[in-house]
Predict the structure.
Amino acid sequence: MRRLYAIVKKEFRQMRRDRLTLGQLILVPAMLLALYGYALSFDVKHIAMGVVDYDRTPASRLLLDSLFRNPYFDRVVDLDSTDAADGVLTLGKVRAVLVIPRDYAKRLARGQPAHLQALVDGADANSAVTTIGYLEAMADRTTLQLRVQALNRAGLPVALPVVRPEPRIWFNPELNSAKFLVPGLIGMLLMLAAVIATSLSIVREKERETMEQIMVSPVHPAELIIGKTLPYVLVCCLTMVMVLVLGRVLFGVVVQGSYGLLALTTLVFLFAALSMGVLISTRTRSQHMAFEIAILTTLLPSLILSGLIFPIKNMPLPIQGLSLLVIPRYFVAALRSIILKGATFPMIWPNLLAMLALGLVFCLLAIRTTRKAI
């Protein structure tokens, strides 16, 4: 126990001397959370639209007024013909151009279908699909209003549609994408901080040639690894508290579940992440190499294979299998369940078990490598 305490004390002294690294571990994740939380968004609003109104009647103006009365579309430019649509779409001035035909009002007056043309920029497939969905919803709403008006003019009773969905949104009633993204960003940023910090710990001893002193000391490899990681556990816990506070203040993300379960999940995750960082540190010979490997094995997998942005179920089966080795996959899923849904332990224990298993594997490999070095 005295040997372990000495190593922990030594690591804290090293952290105190290297204030730049300590500041990066605490402040950088908080800054990135604020940056990514505001920059990343799945909400598609204020879609720039162009309009070609060949009809120019009160009916077409009423249609356009109802379309641009919501925050989803912005009327950017009025065009004289569809020939000019190619230019504004190519330059990216608008995402779509709505074309109203000349006989729009006449066809409505005769009770005939009136076809509108929408020229949509498909370079951004997600925005294009969302734009088409909004336009189709607008067309359905306009059609229903016209039917009601026609029945009122004819003096007939207005019958509501037989099927009328009434959606009720759980867990995120405002459909705010920040509440979905912030728990995932916490997992990614904490993964980066934990792995990078510990990946530089043991390799720093190698570069400064102090590893020989450890080799002749009675320190056990397990004591060395635990002593090197405990200070970073405390620092990462402090970082976790800070980003949770920022998430609540800046984005209104409130923890719906148990704080005790959230703390347990965080500790299990830190055990796995820090073990991975120590394994990288024992396998490398320089801090530069350790940093590059840490970035390569944490940043891209945490961003792409954790379910932070892209649903894992939509990925090819080989990629889904590869994501089983990504620690943030389980941490992000557990965080979202606890923070947004108020999940309990029986609901997230498979994620905890997976992180614990990966942490044990990385820890045993790190101890084995350290034993060979010592």
About this structure: The radius of gyration is 29 Å. The first strand starts at residue 47 and ends at 53.
